[in-house]
Amino acid sequence: MAMASRFRISYHKRLYGALVIYSIFLLGCFAIFQYHREKEYKADEMNSRLQVLNEELIAEMADGKSIEEAVMWIKPGFPELRVSLISREGRLIYDNLVDSLPGNSHLSRKEVRDALKYGSGFDLRRHSESTGDVYFYSALASDRFLIRTAVPYTVTLNQLLAADYAFLWFMVAVTAVMCVIGFFATRRLGRNVERLNEFAEKAESGESFFDAKPFPNDELGNISNHIVLLYSRLQKALADRDAQHKIAMREERDKIRIKHQLTNNINHELKTPVASIKACLDTLITHPDMAPDKRLRFLTGAESACERLNSLLSDVSLITRLDYGGDAIARETVDIDEIAAEVCTEFELIAKEKGVVIHNGIKDSSPLNGNVSLMMSIFGNLIDNAIRYSGCTRIDMKMLRLDNGKQLITVSDDGCGVPAVHIPHLFERFYRLEKGRSRSLGGTGLGLAIVKNAVLWHGGDITVTINQSGGLTFSITLPSGERDGD
User: SS3 for 358?
Assistant: First the structure.
């Protein structure tokens, strides 16, 4: 295999060799054609000269001379001339080169047949009756007989082609020039084919193909450039696919980790209200004669724990649907103005009790292809968190149309804010700044996680910043108008 590879002839040499062979073959065909054409021309010329002699012989015999006298009159100018007199039945009547006349018929001779049929004819063949030399025969028919003259045919190839040597040399020169031009043309083509072959070998082994030099601007070069471009795009697509696969695997691992973490956190969070309910019920069971006011306090504590447990289960159910069943959540045209107004009305009484003023500046927003319940959860959790934990006196909700066709909604407060170290963790599940205080205020630790997942489900994004004057600002970017294909 290595030996065959070592002695393998390159594509350029094979192509150039084929071009040279073709050129030589074409030149040879032309030379052969010229030879036969010149031979036919010489034959026609010789036949014309002999036909003149035949006509003179017939004319002399018509004047009353015998065939011998006519031949003697003409022969001094043609010492090697052979003259035959043949009847129209093909019988040889006279021949100046034979002593005795053969008895066989001459109708089988080509020149005789053609003369009887067309009036004249000629042929080139070997004379078997005498020396065996080649003779050129020319026959002419009259009313009573045929006159046939013949001369030895000794014209060589050089003599036949002498008139065309100049043209042949010209053709040889043209062929040589074309071979030189063909050498450079095939070498260029061969190099391109070798580069393309190198690319094919690298593509087969999956290697990257980096070749800064482009292919020439011709049909093969364009095809090669397109192939290389397609392969580069394929490599990029494969690289992107691998990258996406890695991202998907990482996301899958993150989902599994979050699922385990969520399970552990839920288990931990459930223990507190369940333990509180059990403690209240155990106390009531073991003290049946408890005073009514104390009994009411334990029942109220159990009810409060049940409400917190119910809220926790509701939040866990919602965030689980967003994680694993987001495609199953129904979409409809959502009026953001209407939802914001409804949520503000819902929290108006609680805010008034806490001394908080809610200013709703969301007006003339674009309709959104989303879910009403999720949008209410977004506004509800942000307002509820501000009222419960920030110690604010004012909550501002604003809407701004962006140049990229999206809409920006901000929810800000003038409360105490949070230390900057907590900002990256605010949207994490069950993350609390003050765990005991959050539980005492009824929080589940899932509110902001629900907000972020609900915004992402709507195709938007959410960020949080600390205000210079205090408090936090949540910025929500949402699509403007209904999204196609949802």
Answer: strand
Q: Using CB atoms within 10 A of its CB, is residue 346 exposed (0-12), middle (13-18) or buried (19+)?
A: middle
Q: How far apart are CA 229 and CA 146, in angstroms?
A: 82
Which 3 state secondary structure label does DSSP give 153? coil
Cα 337 → chain centroid:
49
Distance CA 348, CA 358 (A): 7
Cβ 431 vs Cβ 445: under 8 Å: yes
Question: Could you tell me if residue 330 is left (phi over 0), alpha (psi between -120 and 50 degrees) or otherwise beta?
Answer: beta
182-186, 194-198, 462-466, 471-475: lowest mean pLDDT where? 194-198
Please give the single-letter amino acid code of residue 431: Y
At 95-142, the pLDDT tens digits run: 887 766 776 788 888 999 999 999 999 988 876 555 567 788 999 998
With 0-12 CB in 10 A as exposed, 13-18 as middle and 19+ as buried, what is 50? buried
Cβ-Cβ contacts under 8 Å for 171 (sequence gap 6 or more): 27, 30
137 forms beta bridges with 123, 150
- Tell which residue, 149, 11, 8, 144, has the closest CA to residue 70: 149
Residue 140 β-bridge partners:
120, 147
- What's the burial of 239, exposed, middle or buried (CB within 10 Å: 0-12/13-18/19+)? exposed
Residue with the two structure tokens 């209407």 = 338
Q: How far apart are CA 303 and CA 300, in angstroms?
A: 5
Task: Please tell me the predicted confidence (pLDDT) of residue 5.
Answer: 47
Other beta carbons less than 10 A from residue 34's beta carbon: 18
Nearest to 32 by CA among 179, 160, 123, 176: 160
CA dihedral 243→245→249→252, nearest 10 degrees, is 120
Residues linked to residue 398 through DSSP beta bridges, in sequence order = 361, 410
Give the separation between CA 39 and CA 122, rounded to whole angstroms: 14
* Helical (H) or strand (E) element with 409: strand 407-413
Helix (H, G, I), strand (E, B) or coil at 466: strand
Alpha-carbon gap, residue 417 to 179, rounded angstroms:
87
